[in-house]
Amino acid sequence: MNITYRFFHANSDVVYPIKREREGIPTVYTQAENLGGSFKRILRGLPAHNVANFSPSIVKHNGKTYIAWRSQPEPFGFRHDMKYFYLNNQPTDIYIGELADDHTIVGTKKLRSKKHRLSYEDPRLFVGPDDNLYVQFVASTYASRYDNRPDKLFNTPKVIVCLVNDSFEAVHAAIPPIGKNLVKGEAEKNWCFFSHKGQLNCLYATRPLTIERENDPTITVDTAALDKVTHGSPTFNSLPPINLGYGHLIFYHWKHMAQEASGKTFLLYHLGAYIVDRDFTKILYIDKNPLFTGSLNDHLIVWTDYAGNPVSDQPAVMLPFGAYIENTELVMSLGINDAFMGIFRCPMQNILGRMEKPDQDFSSRSIVDHTNSEESSSKA
Prior knowledge:
Layout: E1 7-8, E2 15-16, H1 28-34, E3 38-41, E4 52-61, E5 64-72, E6 76-78, E7 84-86, E8 93-99, E9 105-110, E10 119-127, E11 133-140, E12 158-164, E13 170-174, E14 192-196, E15 199-206, E16 209-213, E17 219-221, H2 226-230, E18 235-237, E19 242-243, E20 247-259, E21 265-277, E22 283-287, E23 292-293, E24 302-304, E25 310-313, E26 318-326, E27 329-336, E28 340-347, H3 348-352, E29 355-356
Antiparallel strand pairs: 1-2, 3-28, 4-5, 5-8, 6-7, 8-9, 10-11, 11-12, 12-13, 14-15, 15-16, 16-17, 18-20, 19-20, 20-21, 21-22, 21-23, 22-29, 24-25, 26-27, 27-28
């Protein structure tokens, strides 16, 4: 396949398409600075010859930061009917390693080393109630020669959960019987497992917020307020809730078709946030504006046909699949445009300072002072 637009990876000979300057939404670097934080791209410790590394998830466990991400070994090809597939049937894999303070990934290896036919995508790391490290990810025959076989369970995306052992290997794989995860022809993704009160829970849906629990009945939370932020666009859970003491900080993303000045349409993602109470019964506060928005000014991958003619851009994506609070900072992993990834750091007060009560007028900005709130974290 010829790629006519290209640039070279800073630390390998991997060929990427070039960044194309456009007007419009600022880059992730600028958006991070506007929030009073910073974004650092991860460049060291990645697989040497893969064309894209994205959809990262980070977690703190036993004093170390672990990271898992999706890595694409080769470009897509396009058939005569414009359906894309992997040229040599090498589907995307998930890699894992330890993230050092300088954003170098140490001990990088494939999560599942055996050859497989499935595409592994969208990992989310979490610590179980047993204090072991786990990973959930999506598996399907997406973009492989084995697709379009409705008799196969993985013809549509399914969620798999594995224990991560001390050798960074995924073992004891399980397909949780949640939702339609065991139903052929039905897709499941964007779950977020987390531990709460000594049991395993799962953010399953966003509208309403649906939490499946290991030993107790399902919880639902009215999240109609999200519609005023997303204007009714489809919403998805992004990462496990972050315990604030007085409540839980929840990040979610949504997407819709957008249009450039030229008239060309593209898929645009946004990242939002809200806080529910400690017992998951109601929304306490909500950010009534996107925290981040995908940008075509960030690096894009331009796929071409066999003649080298551009036929597709990656969407303008901003996906966080992991975060934690370190001292007074939010630390979040971000995947950008299905092309690269990095770490966003920002003072927590800047994130919480954007929150408003959900019943306040969306046209006004009446900021909530969480430090003096009667529901402050000192009451945890």
